[in-house]
Amino acid sequence: MSSTPEPVTVFCGKGGVGKTSLSLAFALRQASQGFRVLVITSHPLPELALSVSLAGLKEADPVAAARLFVAHIDPREILSHVVRQNLGSSRLTDALLSSRIYQSLVEVAPGLKELAVVSRVRDLAVQGVGPEAPAGFDRVVWDAPATGHFLRTLEVARDFDSYLSGPLALLAKSLSGFLARPSSMRLVPVAILEEMAVDETIELCEKLAGDLGMPPAALVCNMASPLLGAPEAEWEKLRRDLPEEVGNPAGAAFILDRHAIERLLFTRLRQACGIPMRIVPRKAGWKSDVELLVDLAGRMGGLSDGEGA
User: Fold this and answer.
1) Considering the entire predicted model, what is its pTM?
2) Given Cys at both, which of 95, 145, 291, 297 links 286, Cβ 3.0 to 4.6 Å?
3) Domain spans in the chain, listed from the N-terminal domain onward
């Protein structure tokens, strides 16, 4: 492993835009290149297993399968660990952790669970050691929660030290330092080219770059039209010729109208966010999740360096 930790690559954005699939695909690409990669997800692992199946990965890419790890962060477990570290393992500690007062505090205290999540991400990124892979990781990828929760997590972790005392205050202060370093995280918002998702992505990029001082490295337009990357002249020619070439004028009109909307939304995103853009086109069909992830992994080249498409 390198002595200088790689930044955590964070796929963030609106729910339902494909962050989990892109996180796994990006990690798969890194793992196939020989790196030990950990994907941190906010989904409980049984839930993740229901939504994405990695069955067959060992046969499809044995090198990647041996180096790809997935972990779910449970903030309650992390806070319990902090308590045990500072109070020691004893009957008193066990009684505290099992008490209704403590359980209620964890659930209702603003920011405690968010603090725990970022602390675990930081530990895995900086130390590169964890029970999921005792030998350490070369890369850490965070499949972040949806926009509102993600922004709240970053905001809380940056400012929480001013509200606490004792061990949690020290933990919060170390997290503030971690998040204040631009090299700690490589933020990659994910959007689909629909108006509501584009509005939310623009707002996310503005808050990351402005309020938090953490400008995104790149932006992924997921599930986009395969024509989106075509030059303007090629698009205009298609707009003229397609109705005559297709036997269904109404169908051709629908395709052209939909693509024109995506093209306008893409231009709006590019102008508003001003960061490198990567287009991941829609895939017509696939036989398995592994086949889809392998295809997506092939489109992730250069993303780790913030390069656009």
Assistant:
1) 0.84
2) 291
3) 8-224+282-305
Residue pair 243/249 in contact by the 8 Å Cβ criterion? yes
Using the CB atoms, write b or e for 115-126: b if 16+ within 10 Å.
Answer: bbbbbbbbebbe
CA angle 45/49/51 to nearest 5° reads 115
76: exposed, middle or buried (Cβ count in 10 Å: 0-12, 13-18, 19+): middle
Q: What are the structure tokens assigned to 241, written together?
A: 């010729």
Between the alpha carbon of residue 94 and those of residues 83, 105, 112, 165, 211, the distances in Å are 10, 16, 19, 22, 40
Average pLDDT over residues 99-122: 79
**Fold assignment, 8-224+282-305:** Rossmann fold (3.40.50)
Task: Please report which helix (H) or strand (E) contains residue 263, including its range.
Answer: helix 249-273
Residue of 164 and 77 predicted with greater confidence: 77
Taking each helix axis from N to C terminus, what angle separates 289-297 and 19-32, rounded to the nearest 10 degrees? 70
Separation of alpha carbons 162 and 156, rounded Å: 10
